[in-house]
Input
Amino acid sequence: MARKPARAYHEAPTRPDAPRRARAELEFEEAAILGALFGQFDANLVQIENRLGVFISARGNRAQIEGPEDAVGRARDVLKAMHQRLLKGQELDPGAVDSIIAMSAEPTLEGIVSGDDGAPPIMIRTRKKTIVPRSATQVEYMRALASKDVIFALGPAGTGKTYVAVAQAVSQLITGSVQRLILSRPAVEAGERLGFLPGDMKEKVDPYLRPLYDALYDCMPPEQVERRLASGEIEIAPIAFMRGRTLADSFIILDEAQNTTREQMKMFLTRFGQNSRMVVCGDPKQVDIPGGPAMSGLNDAVGRLEGVEGIAITRFTVADVVRHPIVGRIVEAYEGQEG
Output
């Protein structure tokens, strides 16, 4: 059966009930997805109500929104975006709803949902899933990943810096636009002293690289990851292994870059070869090397390279945290204490 058009709803005009207050109504034609749209016991609607300060009543295939005019407009846009997401076969969990609500304050939301000027919406497709932006800054980041040569992604944990970069790398590897995927990070303990680690070199450095493996396995079937690792199409190694190489036809990601020295960062950036893309991810405030932020190769590189043609710098904040909401509150509490 042919799928109905994505905009399968009728929108009633917004009517002000009183100064600065309004009412809007949406009617959805895809009855099969209403359960997922509204959530069990209308949980998704309650989530929107609590975040935006509106009241939503759902009867049959209609949803009526009442409240302050600006909030009603945002709630309407959020429901439309949720509906579009479901029609495209994408999941709609509480985290996704929360992210759509957060993005509803941005003028880019409609472009994310429907695509500007009829263009496809912003997304990254991998073998296991389709990744869409979950914050306004991720929109900027995904655009940079698709168009710039070198991208710096700066910000706190939980903002999707590394995960989205790995997804873009996997997508380009699958389509053949690059021949290799190289993931790297410095082997620096975060305030710990692990001492002697038994085993061969791979076993010694793997604990430091585990977050990169996790992102990789989330975007590709395990058997493909193992096969590409064995063939050398995917390489995961500490930054020291990059010295003396020229990395052409590659998608290169450096994670935890705040823990590089200035010399390591210069060495890494100059590995860039023809038909390659390089992403440098890190949190400038979480530096674990001696000397702190002043000695960080990431901070030094950003200061030198901002504004250089072909280089993009995306700055995430605590507002862009897309893990469990409590992660954002924890990051905010620590940053407030440090300030």
